[in-house]
Design goal:
The protein has 261 residues and is mainly α. The chain is built from 12 helices and 5 strands. The strands form 2 sheets. A 3-stranded mixed sheet has the order 4-3-5. Keywords: Disulfide bond, Endonuclease, Glycoprotein, Hydrolase, Metal-binding, Nuclease, Signal.
Length: 261
């Protein structure tokens, strides 16, 4: 293999891994975490801060992605998503052998609620839970297996080669150009009634709520299409709502775990 071929091969491998690894990008996950912090009870906030040794939810929100660089955690890769055919129910499909995001969230809750869990385990699974609730609200993480959650749907984002998954993960957020703190301050304004509605149900219900958007997202593009300002105009508000819902629901779940009524 000559040097040029070797270089091109390396670039291809890196690009493939990067495309598949994205989920809301670092900014999106931090937005969800920042929103969640605003809806925590004081008791929950104090217990979480102690468990995270003073680290904020925003700081740990990308931990589940960061550990992908450590081969010891390779078995957790399938925990970031779930794939099943459009129009079908999750419960009717064969459970993923390596787990999926629904099973992952269930495991995190189980560990955090178990009084017999070690402190280290609780810290680890809390960091994962913060990330996975964010992933649960990215529509292509509740996608189809045959296109790897939109990773195989190739298109162009402005003048760059991309795919549907990456557009929703990172590129719309990057194009908007706000920091996570700026974006978290500029999400849709909701009243108490809307907040209560968003919090209703559990993570299974939230998964199906995201799934409704997933179906719309799949229908929003054609393979090879060039997307740009018009796509942002049509869809960025939906993305903002998902970040907001993820944060409110994360807080609701954390309050249930750390400050049950």
């Amino acid at each position: 293999m000559n040097q040029l071929t070797s270089l091109l091969f390396s670039i291809l491998i890196f690009t493939t891994v990067q495309v598949f690894a994205d989920d809301w990008g670092k900014t999106g996950h931090r937005v969800t975490a920042a929103v969640a912090d605003r809806y925590l009870t004081e008791a929950s906030r104090e217990k979480i801060r102690e468990l995270l040794q003073g680290q904020s939810l925003e700081l740990v929100s990308n931990y589940a992605d960061d550990i992908k660089s450590d081969s010891r955690f390779d078995h957790l890769d399938p925990w970031h998503y779930v794939n099943f055919p459009l129009g079908e129910k999750y419960k009717d499909e064969k459970a993923a052998k390596g787990g999926d995001i629904v099973q992952a969230i269930e495991k995190c809750i189980e560990v955090l609620k178990d009084p017999g869990s070690t402190r280290d385990d609780k810290e680890f699974y809390l960091k994962l839970l913060v990330h996975f609730i964010g992933d649960l609200h990215q529509p292509l993480h509740i996608g189809r297996a045959d296109d790897r959650g939109g990773n195989n749907i190739q298109l162009r984002w402005f003048s760059r080669g991309s795919n549907l998954h990456r557009v929703w993960d990172t590129q719309m957020v990057e194009q908007f150009g706000m920091s996570y703190s700026e974006l978290s301050d500029n999400l849709p304004v909701v009243d108490p009634r809307q907040i209560k509605e968003i919090m209703m149900g559990d993570y299974n219900d939230w998964m199906y709520d995201t799934r409704k958007l997933t179906e719309s997202v799949y229908g929003s593009v054609r393979v090879g299409e060039k997307l740009g300002y018009r796509y942002m105009y049509d869809h960025f508000d939906s993305l903002r709502w998902q970040l907001l819902k993820g944060g409110i629901r994360l807080a609701s779940l954390l309050n249930e775990i750390f400050d049950p009524a």
